[in-house]
Amino acid sequence: MTGPAVVTLGESMVRLTASRPGPLAHSATMALGMGGAESNVAIGLARLGVDVAWMSRLGADSGGDLIVRELLAEGVRVAAVRDPEAPTGLMLKERRTPDTVSVTYYRSGSAASRMSSEDLDASLIASARMLHLSGITPALSSSCLEAVRTAVAIAKDAGVPISLDLNYRRRLWDENDAAAFYGSVMHDVDIVFAGDDEAAIAAGISAEPRVLAQRLHGMGAETVVIKRGSLGAFVLTDAGVHSVDALPITPIDTVGAGDAFVAGYLAEHLSGASPAEALVLAVRTGAFACLAEGDWEGAPRRAELGLLSSVDPVIR
Asked: Which residues form the Carbohydrate kinase PfkB domain (predicted)?
């Protein structure tokens, strides 16, 4: 079997979503699903025709079975160690108002938090065309941090480019610890994705997003992609800066939009497109993901991309 185009590693969790807006305590039913930043990206890539593998550690339980089944069904290769002594993590998704989503995570002592360097398939990483990481995984535990550092070392030794979504999570670590990690790996990163606030944690406060991007570039990242939500996005490289406006949509669920954005950019980048061209698809896939309930369910396939500009609401 040849190596995948992209390898990513990280936590995925069982997801329970309240079936209607309102307090979770009064929700009579909940929908069962799964999600996680890196597995969301993996599904987004697979739907865009990219061969992708996902590594992790899952409980030897029904939750782990659910995650493996969903990923395999989406065409994602799965290289996950099953842990008989720790459960698969859980997230509860509450829509307190029609326009507000709150997500609560139960990951302490989870199988994913016990992931270590020994769980990595080094040959899979070394044979890939890209290693994608997020800032969530190293924040889960010291063993997860070491696993990420080991994955980076394997990729660098094999000449595999590295993509990093800063993906800062305040509940997992403080800004100082996150900044220290970002600074320690930025010189190894080829493409970095960040929101304005995340870029400020990594590069220092600035009122101007392009200054933040220039600082990240100066720290070692060859390509810096800044995600700005409704303000669009821009990419900075040695060749200059290119920006793209956000698409006018009425969002249904914005959770996972950043992961779909990353998948769109990486898919186009791996096809040989320029950073400007990759950014156009990233904005489109990110917008698409907001048009359906779920963390990854709305990620588009290439054949569906034209639907955002369709004038006919009925397709026959």
From this structure: 6-296
